[in-house]
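A quick aside before the break. I want you to see a complete sequence-to-structure record at least once, exactly as it would be stored in a machine-readable document. Don't worry about memorizing anything.
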Amino acid sequence: MEQTKMMETSEPLTCIILAGGLGTRLKHTVPDLPKCMAPINGKPFLQYLLDFLIRQEVKQFIFSLGYLNEFVVAFLELYYPALHKIYSIEPAPLGTGGAIKLACSQTTNKNLIVVNGDTMFKVPVSKLMEQHQQQNAGCTLSLKPMTSFSRYGAVETNAKDEVITFQEKKYYESGLINGGVYALNKDYFLENSPDGTFSFEKDFLERQIHSGHLKAFISDNYFIDIGIPEDYQQAAKDFQQIFPEHNSQ
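That is the input. The structure line, written in C-alpha cells, reads:
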C-alpha cells in the first residue's frame, strides 16, 4: 500500500480543463467565443486560469473542447507553445461527464485534477491532491463557504469529510457550494459512471453520495464563476486586484 501511494504521488500533476460548453447564458455578452475565451481586461479568462494552475505546479493539461474549439487551440499554440498539452475534442456534445471520460482516455495518470474552464477557484491543488490520495477517495470536491446565496445549491458533509447530500438551488444564509475543482481517481470514475452523454454532477457525483468515496476539501480562497453576465463583469473588477501582474502586460 505504501508503495502504491508513492507511485501515485510521483505522477506529474495533470489537469483536465472543461472548455467545451456552449456558453448560452453569456451569448449576448460574449458572442461567437467559447466561455473560457471571454475577455477579462483584454485577456482571455483561460489565460488567468492557466497561469494560476501553472503556478500551482500543474505540469500537464488536457483541454476538453467542443464548441468553437479552434479559438482555444489557436490561442494556446500562439501563447503557450511549450506547454505540455493534449486536446480532447468532442465529436458531438457529451455533457460534462462524457467529456471527462473522453479526456481520461488521453492519460495514464491514476489521479487527475478537473476544473471548469469558466470558473476561478484559487484552491491549492497540490494540497487537494495530497488529501485525495491520503483518503483514497474516488473523487474529492473543493467546496467554498458562502453566505447569502441562491445561485448555487448547497453541499453537506459529515465529520469524516464525506459529501453526504447535494441540496437544490434556493436561498441559503450560509453553506458550502461546489466550486468546480475536483481531484478524481480515474479508475473509480470509469467504473462508476454511465456511457455516452451524461452529466458529471447529476449522473456521477449525486449517485455516489452513499458510497463514502466522495470527499470534501474546504477552501475559503477566491471564487468566481463567469457563467452569467453579472459575475463576468465582477471578474473584470476583481482580477485587477488579484492578478496585478496582468495589468501592465
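Two observations worth writing down. The chain has eight helices and 13 strands. The domain at 2-244 is CATH 3.90.550.10 (Spore Coat Polysaccharide Biosynthesis Protein SpsA; Chain A). We'll return to this after the break.
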